[in-house]
């Protein structure tokens, strides 16, 4: 079995021991928000990062930020809903290098109850948040199996396991991400592939600003504050890099 060096040695010194030297990671949706923060964090810990995003310009901006800071990154245009495209883009990467880490992070949001969710919305959410994760895992698993293993991290959400009001289709997709993660974790553990998901609560990213703009025009600030108060800590956690590193920033005065 490959020696794994991603394991955090102790909860207190975990962040310091997080080193990814010699590893290559694909991060889908790495052009913005949480995916961008993951890409920056991985690169700062010596991983080579392949940023895969439907928005090439945003992916390139993240890659440039990493390169400017002395890290290694490349940007790749890809729509995760398109299985052929995902296989092609990932296949080109695998032809050049071994990829040890896949972060299936690309996702979209939607507001609505079962009654106010159209079939079109339901299918769109399913295509990106569920099929996109399936496409990423499918494209990667053969490569990981053939190369002694790897790590898959899927981006779920608390919406997948706790009731969030007005998030019918979104919750459906994140529940599916959790179920797919368990399934793949079980089926591939003997291939030295570790599959996990994380379920963030609300994180202030462009994803949040977008749905406030689309769904609450003119009331963005009011709803933003309402959402902040509904967080267990009573406010937004701050920037996503801080969230990943467990850092408390100056605006974050609530209990952890
Ligand atoms: N922000 C939150 O509060 C929150 C909470 C829990 C979970 N999440 C999850 O975290 C993930 C990232 O969210 P975020 O807030 O950083 O969002 P974001 O909108 O800031 O970033 C999403 C990225 O995914 C890309 N993307 C969208 N559709 C794509 C597609 N078809 N193919 C390839 N790339 C695509 C976008 O271009 C963008 O760069 C999502 O899966 C989201 O569901 C977010």
How would you characterize the overall build of this protein?
The chain is an alpha/beta fold and 256 residues long. Helix content is 46%, strand content 13%. The protein contains nine helices and six strands; from the N terminus they run αβαβαβαβαβαβααα. The chain has helices at 14-17, 33-44, 56-68, 83-96, 119-146, 168-188, 206-215, 220-230, 240-245; strands at residues 24-28, 48-53, 72-77, 101-104, 150-155, 193-198. A six-stranded parallel sheet has the order 3-2-1-4-5-6, with helices on both faces. α3 links the parallel β2 and β3 (72-77). α4 packs parallel to α5 and α5 packs parallel to α6 (168-188). The radius of gyration is 18 Å and the shape is globular. The termini are far apart. Residues 1-13 and 247-256 have low confidence and may be disordered. It binds nicotinamide-adenine-dinucleotide.
Number of extended strands: 6
- The span between the termini is 37 Å
Instruction: Please list the strands of the largest sheet in the order they lie side by side.
Output: 3-2-1-4-5-6
Percentage of helical residues? 40-55%
Global structural class:
alpha/beta
Q: Which word captures the global form?
A: globular
Mean pLDDT equals 88
Roughly what fraction of the amino acids lie in strands? 5-15%
Uncertain runs are 1-13, 247-256
Write the element-wise H/E pattern from the N-terminal end onward.
HEHEHEHEHEHEHHH
Number of discrete helical segments? 9
The description of the largest β-sheet is:
6 strands, parallel
Hetero groups: nicotinamide-adenine-dinucleotide
Q: Whole-number radius of gyration?
A: 18 Å
